[in-house]
Every structure is written in structure tokens, then in C-alpha cells.
What we know:
Blueprint: E1 2-5, E2 11-18, E3 29-35, E4 38-42, H1 54-59
Antiparallel strand pairs: 1-2, 2-3, 3-4
Amino acid sequence: MRHLVDADGREWRIYERSTGDTSPGAAPSSLVFDTDGIVRRLWRYPDAWSALPDADLLRLMDVPRREAPRV
């Protein structure tokens, strides 16, 4: 678990969480960014996320999410 403070002064807890989902193609874990009233989850993230510099780790939260396909 990592504890980081972003540019707005929010303290984030960042940790890996097992999904427990064993179905084919399912992500075995996610990276969780957790602060008061906000939780963000990444399904694709670097294996060595815990070794990333603070700024790079916080930037992962800002990676655009893939949009749902339009029907």
C-alpha cells in the first residue's frame, strides 16, 4: 500500500486488490486509488506500480478510460 498526496492536497491510499474472478479473460486484480468519498479502480496497470515515482503513480488515475462502444 502506498499513501500519496495529490496537487489538491487529497491523501490517496493506493493498493492492489484481488478480484477473485477466475473466468477467462477476467483481470486477476485491480489497482485501487482511495480517498475520502472517491474510489478509482484501474484494471490495466504496470506490474511494478509500487516502484513508480509518486507523480507517475498519481498520473495513472488520469489515464483516459476506454469509452464504451456506441451502438
